[in-house]
Amino acid sequence: MKALSLKQPFAELVVSGKKKIELRKWNTKFRGEFLIHASKIPDKKSMEKFGFKELPLGCIVGKARLVDVKHYANDAKRAKDKSLHLADGDWGDYGFILKDARKIKTIPIKGKLGFWDAGVMRT
Asked: Mind listing the pLDDT tens digit for each residue in 46-83?
C-alpha cells in the first residue's frame, strides 16, 4: 500500500479529521487510499502552535483517501482554504484533498519522500 510521510502535528491533524487538505510543492496523479506516516522529526513550532507536547514519530499512524488535487494559482485562493489545510505561508501550490481519514494502530517504519510503497500492511 502507498504511504505519505507528514511531519507531526500535521499527521495527527489529518487522522483526527481536522486537516482536510495536505499542501505540497508537487502534483500527483495518484488517487486512492494510502497510509499516513508520521515523520521521525516533528515541526516543533507547529507542535506548540496546535497545543501538542508529544505525538507518535517514525511510524504509520492512520490512513486516508486522496480524492483530488487542487492547484492554488495564487495566495488568495490558498488563504481561502486555510481552515482546511491549517498551514501558514507557502507550503505549496498543490492541495491534496483528503477523505475518510482515520487513526489505526501505530506501525513503526522508516518513511520516505513522496508517495512510497509501505508493502502489504494489515490496517
From this structure: 999 999 999 999 999 999 999 999 998 877 888 888 88
**pTM of the predicted model over 0.85:** yes
Kindly write down the DSSP assignment for every residue of 66-100, as one continuous string.
EEEEEE--SHHHHHHTHHHH---S-S-SEEEEEEE
Q: Are 17 and 59 in contact (CB under 8 A)?
A: no
- As a whole number of angstroms, the distance between CA 6 and CA 73 comes to 23
Domain annotation for the chain: domains and CATH numbers: 2-111 (2.30.130.30)
How many beta carbons lie within 10 A of that of residue 27, not counting itself? 12
